[in-house]
Amino acid sequence: MRPSSEPPAALTPPGAEQAEAALIEHYPRLVRIGYLLLPPSPGRGRRVLAAHALAQRSLQAAHRAGAATVPLPRRPGRDEAADPGYAFVRHQVLRRALAARRIPRLPPPLPTAWGLRLLPHPGGAGELALERELAALGPPARAAFVLRGLDGLTDGEIRRELAAAGVSDPHAALVEADGVRAGHALLGSPEFDPCSLQARPPDLPRRRRRARAACAAVAALLVCGALVGLPGGGWGHRAPSAPPYARNPAAEAALDPAALRRVPAGYWQRAPRRDFTVWPARGARTGDARLLRRALRTWAGPGAGVRTSATPGTPVGPPMGPPQLLYAGEVGGSAVVLFHDGLRVVRYAEPGDAGRGRGAALDFARVDGADAASSGALVVARTDDGVRYLTAPWVRAVRVRDLLAPERAARAVPRSPDGVTGALADPAAATGCRSWEAVELTGPAGAPVRLVTDLGEPAPARLTSGAPGAPHDVTGRAARESWARAACLLREARSHGVRAVNAWTYARQPLPEDGGTARWLCTRAETWRGAGSRVVAQFQDPSERAPVPGTVAARAEDSPACGVRAPRVLAGVLWQSPGGRWYVLAAGSEEFASLSTSGGVTGEVRGRLLAVPAEEGDRPRLHGRLEDGGRVDALH
Length: 636
What we know:
The chain is of the alpha+beta class.
């Protein structure tokens, strides 16, 4: 449930926590709005980065106004993006975009990219025509067209939004927007999606001239430094450094394809444990010494033309010794090599038509401490047609399941003899969150079925359900239903080095005025590196169904809540009943003996469920007492 998003409410800061929740949940939509509103000059690359900067700067006003502890829930019957937090953040994006006569320079640490041009995917003739028409409009008219097409605002709502953003004549802007011949449906095209990008090189001749000038300057500095250092013996012939891999036999052996560790095909069946160390070497090019040598040398010292990525907390240095070869073959038109060195999985890929390592990519992912549950698959390739996995040798079947449709049966996925799956949809690539495909891995007879999902990294994240001390695989109907309205929150964990995400239904609460029974869910994302865990408490109103996500009641990072160390959580929301009355609702896990509110709404109850009458806009604070007498505040 949620109140109206008309400007009087939207201009009132809803609190930092709710604004942050709206920004994270609707970030792709907000960046798309900013991209469409910004002037087209000087180019699409700068416009992409400026749109991300607009969205990320939109929280400044909410932080200045202070944080709210109890967020407002949604109201049925409106678009999912029309909550107070979203309306406020959208207004900040709108106001800043209209004020931008030109695309500003981006001070750090706002988004920037060096050595690459990041561009949306090209569209067709319809998108090109719409782009030209939008460029010909004035900024207020462009804003009117976008608000009407993307968020479905009425003319009255658009007039109020534009007036609040400082537009002197909103009616004239609407009249000008009416002259656009292209349809609003094209606004959802990938052409205007600054969150789904393709990388291209910048102006190479200009970069080459600048690189030559920089090299000349560096050479001059080195000569001067050598002349200064030689008399004191600091930089002279006694220097201990040497060219990489020049005088280190162990390091040189790590670059020899013949020294790679190759596990026999059937060893995993008799091995004392199951993890990446027992994966056999698979693929049609495991004997291609030239490919393997290119991959190893690129790993040891990637050149300027190699695109490199790493999950947070993952070292990107060279191998410490001969690594284990997991895979070498052709996937999706590229040559792919997968290595494992005990700490990391390293993926090397080069275009099949380029050869000799040109246009190569190198990805690092930390996987230390992997077990049978977390080593069932790796992402072997990510291309325009989808994501492909390399499955563990003990995986007998692969199925894909839409988490947002728990009643729908999973469908089988074909695999090659080497264990590479067919292309599957990237769950986070689509605009909005209409589906979220996860992969079921079935092991030998009697083994549990594991559920994993791609979060943009080489190692997929395992999904579980249940209490923190005893999470279990997502196999039953109840577990799938709990994930159905939490799956869209997985976007927040993308590219964060996540190892596993657990969803725990920690309370069920009968709502006032026969409003049904709500569920309180806590999702916790654990990382491979240990630090950086993310916790989200969610209120799931029974009047809404999947794929509508629940209301984010609270979130925290690096918190022990909902984990093994602190298997407890307390959160609350401000809820409007079907009869129109407002209540503060709160729920704690089983460890809580009593709950209370303060700060404008006063109430106390024995037990772990609270429902106190309130007024719209109230921002109470929540507190709880544990069975042992300890005092705990709400998750934040």
